[in-house]
Design goal:
Length: 91
């Protein structure tokens, strides 16, 4: 039962990843707006940019991990479908 629930929180496809990245970006913009209100001027703008930069880094990492997992899965499938090595007859 817990494994079925845990599978809901695994990002499997690129559209799912883009939805997660969008949610992260929405939260980062809201946090950045709070920073602009608390720290007017250059400091608030730097904190806003830091919030947005973290989303770019996290989004890139999520997409890279999806590519890595797909390549790993393809490699495992190639290993499974390869013919068994020939065995020499003992003489």
């Amino acid at each position: 039962m817990l494994t079925k629930l845990a599978r809901l929180f695994v990002i499997k496809t690129r559209p799912e990843a883009f939805m997660i990245i969008y949610a992260l970006a929405t939260g980062a913009v809201q946090r950045g707006q709070v920073y602009l209100g608390q720290y007017p001027g250059f400091g608030g703008k730097l904190l806003f940019l830091a919030c947005m930069g973290s989303v770019f880094m996290a989004g890139g990492k999520i997409l890279d991990c999806l590519k890595y997992e797909a390549a790993q899965k393809a490699g495992e499938q190639a290993m499974d479908t390869s013919p068994a090595p020939l065995q020499r007859a003992k003489t």
